[in-house]
Amino acid sequence: MLNQETFVSEAIIPTSLAAPAVIGEPGIPIRFRWRDDEYEIARIIEKWKTAGDCRHGSGERYVRRHWFRVETIGGTEMRIYFERQARSKQNKKRWWLASTLSPSNS
Prior knowledge:
Blueprint: E1 4-11, E2 13-17, E3 29-34, E4 37-53, E5 61-72, E6 77-83, E7 95-102
């Protein structure tokens, strides 16, 4: 049986951050809060970046998001990302949970 991915797209609140591994990258949360629960990252499975065109028409491309596929201590796989620029001045949230992947019950 295949694992079931659930789209979330909700902000998470880091409660503990690791130091950035590379200059220019964000420090990844070691622990974070989502809804009413706290999660701890056991391991990073994969990481990648997505880029977008300059918003002022210069033709340059900039990193927009740093993505991480992680496994929590409880075994849940999650895709989280860091937005390089907050979505608005009122909404300064930068870390987001994109989706969760529940283990199959086979």
